């Protein structure tokens, strides 16, 4: 172990709260998540005097690999929008848009459980590096991300998805791609709801609850806050660029006016619903899904569907949906071959 690796071990042990970290240990397998990764990268940046995209940890998750990268005279410092979470595989790639935080490293376990033969690309928000402008319109995000995914897949059928507000961006991407004459094989909404909410609307819904429902809601919310207290505190100390991205995403989703979508929408619905969405089991998608709405129930809630063990079930059910357009494509090719 050289001096650089020794310093990295100390940083990893500090941010992960563990001793005995080895140079070949995987960051994610030791409890690493997006906010810990942010803290760690900021520590490393102070040590080496240069910035590293947080998604780097998806490609180089060990100290040995990271040290090798840092020894290079140059490395990419601009955070790309398109990130290969899992680039290998023979199947059509799945392109998944970030949630309200703008980051995509939370998709790691979902990509892993989909299997090594399923390419998975995450689309993260522009501007998180503080260098490029932050996009504030869903339409502009969609246009930019389409340009990015075409570098990997020139033509459809495309498999798209998005988490939370990222579902709106995926929705608009599907609209724009179809307008360009491209086929969209899958449009997956991962706990994305069509209704916008305010404190006033939330209070009104709370007042409509029965006493027993109010108590159950209060207990559940208290449990969530206690469980995520550390993460909630860390959110207060995000870098300015990431705070700006979060604000822009909130603004973009609030101002987006969706048009009915002529294709099919697949809505992945968590078992534990929030109070603001509890009165509409179809999440408002029926009016927009002209080509039909498929609802896929998954365990967990909005905050943990990408965590173990819920993410395993999500991956299993998403895998079935991803195979469907690929099977249809093969059937169409065989039909055209037989007719000729």
Write a structural description:
It is globular and about 60 Å long. Helix 5 (108-114) links the parallel strand 2 and strand 3 (120-123). Residues 228-235 have low confidence and may be disordered. Helix 5 crosses helix 12 (310-339). With 340 residues, it is of the alpha/beta class. Helix content is 45%, strand content 11%. A 7-stranded mixed sheet has the order 1-3-2-4-5-6-7, sandwiched between helices.
Strand content: 5-15%
Compute the number of helices: 12
What is the end-to-end distance? 64 Å
Tell me the CATH architecture of the largest domain: 3-Layer(aba) Sandwich
How do the strands and helices of this protein lay out in sequence?
Layout: H1 3-16, H2 34-48, H3 56-59, H4 63-70, E1 82-86, E2 94-97, H5 108-114, E3 120-123, H6 138-149, E4 158-163, H7 165-179, E5 184-190, H8 199-207, H9 211-227, H10 229-235, H11 240-255, E6 265-270, E7 293-298, H12 310-339
Parallel strand pairs: 2-3, 2-4, 4-5, 5-6, 6-7
Antiparallel strand pairs: 1-3
Helix pairs in contact: 1-2, 5-12, 6-7
Defining traits:
340 residues; alpha/beta; Non-ribosomal Peptide Synthetase Peptidyl Carrier Protein, Chain A; Rossmann fold; 7-stranded mixed sheet; 12 helices; 7 strands; globular
Compact description:
This protein is of the alpha/beta class. It is built from 12 helices and 7 strands. The chain has 2 domains: 1-77, Non-ribosomal Peptide Synthetase Peptidyl Carrier Protein, Chain A (Orthogonal Bundle), CATH 1.10.1200.10; 79-339, Alpha/Beta hydrolase fold, catalytic domain (Rossmann fold), CATH 3.40.50.
């Amino acid at each position: 172990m050289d001096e650089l690796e020794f310093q990295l071990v100390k940083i990893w042990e500090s941010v992960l709260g563990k001793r005995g970290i080895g140079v070949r240990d995987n960051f994610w397998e030791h409890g690493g998540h997006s906010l810990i990764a942010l803290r760690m990268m900021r520590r490393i940046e102070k040590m080496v005097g240069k910035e590293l995209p947080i998604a780097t940890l998806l490609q180089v998750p060990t100290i040995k690999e990271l040290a090798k990268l840092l020894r290079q005279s140059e490395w990419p410092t601009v955070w790309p929008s398109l990130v290969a979470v899992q680039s290998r595989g023979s199947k059509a790639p799945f392109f998944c848009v970030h949630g309200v935080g703008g980051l995509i490293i939370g998709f790691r376990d979902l990509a892993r459980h989909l299997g090594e033969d399923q390419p998975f690309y995450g689309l993260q928000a522009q501007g998180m590096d503080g260098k490029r402008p932050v996009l504030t319109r869903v339409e502009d995000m969609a246009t930019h991300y389409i340009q990015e995914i075409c570098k990997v897949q020139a033509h459809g059928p495309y498999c798209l998805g998005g988490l939370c507000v990222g579902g709106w961006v995926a929705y608009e991407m599907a609209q724009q791609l179809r307008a360009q004459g491209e086929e969209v094989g899958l449009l997956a909404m991962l706990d994305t709801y069509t209704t916008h909410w305010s404190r006033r609307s939330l209070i009104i819904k709370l007042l409509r609850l029965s006493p027993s429902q109010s108590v159950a809601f209060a207990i559940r919310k208290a449990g969530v806050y206690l469980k995520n207290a550390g993460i909630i505190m860390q959110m207060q100390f995000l870098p300015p660029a990431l705070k700006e991205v979060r604000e822009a995403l909130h603004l973009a989703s609030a101002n987006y006016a969706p048009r009915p979508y002529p294709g099919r929408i697949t809505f992945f619905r968590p078992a534990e619903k929030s109070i603001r969405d509890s009165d509409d089991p179809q999440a408002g998608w029926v009016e927009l899904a002209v080509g039909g709405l498929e609802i896929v129930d998954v365990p967990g809630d909005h905050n943990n569907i990408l965590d173990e063990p819920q993410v395993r079930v999500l991956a299993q059910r998403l895998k079935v949906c991803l195979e469907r357009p690929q099977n249809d494509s093969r059937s169409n090719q065989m039909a055209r071959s037989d007719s000729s």
